[in-house]
Design brief:
The structure holds two protein chains of two kinds.
Chain A lengths: L15 H4 L12 H8 L9 H4 L7 H9 L3 H11 L3 H7 L6 H4 L11 H13 L14 E5 L3 H12 L4 E4 L8 H4 L8 H13 L3 E3 L10 H6 L3 E6 L5 E2 L12 E3 H8 L19 E5 L3 H12 L4 E5 L11 H10 L2 E3 L2 E8 L5 E14 L5 E14 L2 E4 L3 E2 L3 H4 L26 E3 L2 H4 L4 H22 L1
Helix pairs in contact in A: 2-4, 4-5, 4-8, 5-8, 6-8, 9-18, 13-14, 14-15
Chain B lengths: L1 E10 L2 E7 L1 H6 L5 E5 L7 E4 L2 E3 L4 E7 L3 H7 L6 E2 L1 E6 L10 E7 L2 H4 L1 H9 L3 E8 L8 H7 L2 E6 L6 E2 L2 H9 L9 E5 L2 H12 L4 E5 L15 E4 L2 E4 H4 L2 E3 L5 H8 L3 H13 L1 H8 L1
Parallel strand pairs in B: 9-10, 9-13, 10-11, 11-12, 13-14
Antiparallel strand pairs in B: 1-2, 1-7, 2-6, 3-4, 3-8, 5-6, 14-17, 15-16
Helix pairs in contact in B: 6-7, 10-11
The chains are: A alpha/beta, B alpha/beta.
Amino acid sequence: MPVKRAEKTPMPVRDPEVRAHDFKEVNDGYTIFHAAFEAERCLRCQDPVCVEGCPVGIPIPDFIHAVAIGDMAGAARILRGANPLPAICGRVCPQETQCEERCSLGTRLVPVAIGHLERFVADWERTQAPAAPLRPTRPKKIAVIGSGPSGLVCAGELARLGYPVTVYEALHAPGGVLRYGIPEFRLPKAILDWEIGVLKGLGVEIVCNVVIGKTLPLDDLFSRLGYTVVFVGTGAGLPQFLGISGEDLNGVMSANEFLTRVNLMRAYDFPETDTPVNVGKRVAVIGAGNTAMDAARTALRMGAEEAMIVYRRSEKEMSARVEEYGHAIEEGVRFHWLTSPLEVVGSADGWVTGLRCQKMQLGEPDRSGRARPVPIPGEEVTIPLDNVVLAIGTTPNPLLTRTTSGLLTTKEGCLVADEETGRTPKPLVFAGGDAVTGAATVILAAGAGKRAAHAIDEALAARG
Amino acid sequence: MARIVEARRLTPVTKLFRLDAPLIAAAAKAGQFVMLRVREGGERIPLTIADYDRAAGTLTIVVQEVGATTKRVCALEAGDEILDVVGPLGTPVDIAPGGHACAVGGGFGSAALLCLMKELRARGDTTTAIVGARNKDLLILTDELRAICTSVEICTDDGSAGFKGFVTQRLAQLIAGEGPGRPDTVVAIGPMVMLRAIAETTREAKVKTLVSLDPLMVDGTGMCGGCRVIVGGQTLFACVDGPIFDAHEVDFAVGMRRSKQYVRQEKEAVERLACAATPALVEAR
Ligand SMILES: Cc1cc2nc3c(=O)[nH]c(=O)nc-3n(C[C@H](O)[C@H](O)[C@H](O)COP(=O)(O)OP(=O)(O)OC[C@H]3O[C@@H](n4cnc5c(N)ncnc54)[C@H](O)[C@@H]3O)c2cc1C
Ligand SMILES: Cc1cc2nc3c(=O)[nH]c(=O)nc-3n(C[C@H](O)[C@H](O)[C@H](O)COP(=O)(O)OP(=O)(O)OC[C@H]3O[C@@H](n4cnc5c(N)ncnc54)[C@H](O)[C@@H]3O)c2cc1C
Ligand code: SF4
Ligand code: SF4
Ligand code: FES
């Protein structure tokens, strides 16, 4: 094995003291020198195990080699062939549990920065002239419900295959969680808009302000509007609450509400924009996933003096991306591990004043193998607060399934669909993404959208 | 985008709009609402579907000016476009057929009763509308209601038209057997204080009472939980489980408190709009 530098080429980042007060992107991105330097570290393994860790099977060594020899156009072509949202996944994929976890360099040294390189190539691609628009060549129309990553990718693949595709979105702007959930400082909206522009160039039509199941029944897409196939990518947008006392107090919000007010409705620009958001001096976010980190870091940017994470398990069980956790620490987010909320306490006029919590310790492993948190008898704390944001998970929104016959759901509310093809029990209805898996990741949703597109193509070819 | 085909001032603070929105008009049912946005960066606000015309593909809403966004909407005229309109959202009202339904409206609420009264009348129910205002100049759409209801009861605080007193007092009289008589179901739309008063009026007499709640909303599709209300001790999302709930189960105290979460910012927005009155209104068009 040739000798390789041990460390990843660091991602240039903005000063935490500055960036914690604005919404500009945290990571500056590699320059061409960083990229070439990092690409050199890849061993171009005979048996590239990294690829097995990528849900969409990007030919990782090939695109990295193209970067190493300065063939950016080639690298971009390879990437886009496998992953239709490279600029987004390069930023938000939990690489450390996917491609980079498998990387063979990682056994002795630090894995290749596959995500950073992916982002670099995709950003380079955005500086190039857009591809010429495509015209649909096939007669069968396809409707996609939901414009999150699963829907966008499914639509894009189908358009590339020549189908006329319409995406129906309930909100006034497309993108799903990429628009209303993941903040600007991690995923600039300009990138999402560019990707949506690419899809439009492929001929995809996006219709916002249509809630399938309310504005139009799903079956009308077939019977009245003449679509042959429907893909459901409606996500897992229904926020969970803890059911503890005080959750109805003024100043308690779901992370979805908090982030939607700030991201989709641009509350950071209030009163230039019209939607406000309440952020007091001390904000606690309950949970420790990506959503929780985003909410805590957003609270800082909205002027909170202190933002903290309250989590009933320990740091080890946290599900946030490592990079986000690191950035949150740098920006001054505080962490209360092994702290389980018992009650939101409030003032006489109904505003949050604190969170009463039970201190926990790690006990025997539970069925999932994670150490189960158990209460330490008699150890309670009350954290003084102005806001509580709940980021304890989401489940699929039942709106569509309640109003559509023939679709099945699991007891968790997830749509029943074949994992490989996205086929549901309802004829010619396919599904993928968080609506099927429950809250997961962008790349899993994108992968499901892509596989479904090809399964749809096959199904239509078979029908002739 | 939805084009305004008709805009008509009803009172100094309320305005009726008919919108060209064929998809929504085709699916709308009484009790549902739409969310609209009038400018880039604008708020999404919920408005009850007052009426719909499936043949013409139009939707009627009545907007009462209370803050910045409703003022912006009310500055629009026929021919203008509304940036975003989405709906119909929420669950339609569900009333057992064949009885006497009495609808009570306050403020924009009297208008929001139109399609409900039409739907109930069309299937043969007996319908009474009780509408109230401070004085007769503030009453809205009474002729339209007369045309579609079995009877219309008018109440004014000063007695300048109809019954002198509050809608709740007239409702109590009906429950006692006066006028069109005791209703089997009461449906009320209007400000939460009025809804609570109605719930109290009908509680003892055990008249089934439905109220359309108007909590703060963001998306209107069940995604944010900002609209949560407590009904029968359970937390429900008004935008999908409602907005219509059993009045005797609603926790109005929590509902009213939660509605006030943004009073400070709302005031700021209105003051700002007033300062910038002309340009902002021009921009809204
Ligand atoms: C705050 C936050 C941070 C995250 N961070 C990361 C991260 O760093 N990395 C990562 O990989 N993943 C992250 N995730 C998870 C990731 O965003 C999701 O797994 C992914 O977006 C799911 O994609 P989807 O296409 O299934 O659905 P969504 O993105 O949820 O999109 C669904 C869309 O469908 C629309 N819709 C729903 N019902 C209807 C209907 N009836 N009619 C019309 N439209 C409808 C919705 O409005 C929405 O726009 C994060 C999630 C959140 C909330
Ligand atoms: C399901 C539903 C249906 C509705 N239907 C209609 C309708 O048909 N016509 C109509 O005019 N309005 C209706 N509303 C109320 C309307 O949505 C609000 O008036 C509007 O959002 C206010 O926006 P704004 O920016 O103009 O005022 P804001 O600046 O948001 O508020 C200004 C003032 O009004 C108060 N206020 C705000 N929202 C409410 C509310 N929901 N209830 C009581 N007081 C409030 C505030 O506390 C503040 O003092 C409905 C609300 C809901 C939830
Ligand atoms: S898409 Fe995600 S998992 Fe696949 S190579 Fe890129 S960063 Fe890794
Ligand atoms: S496993 Fe690591 S070193 Fe090997 S090809 Fe993949 S990225 Fe390169
Ligand atoms: S308004 Fe967001 S869930 Fe009801």
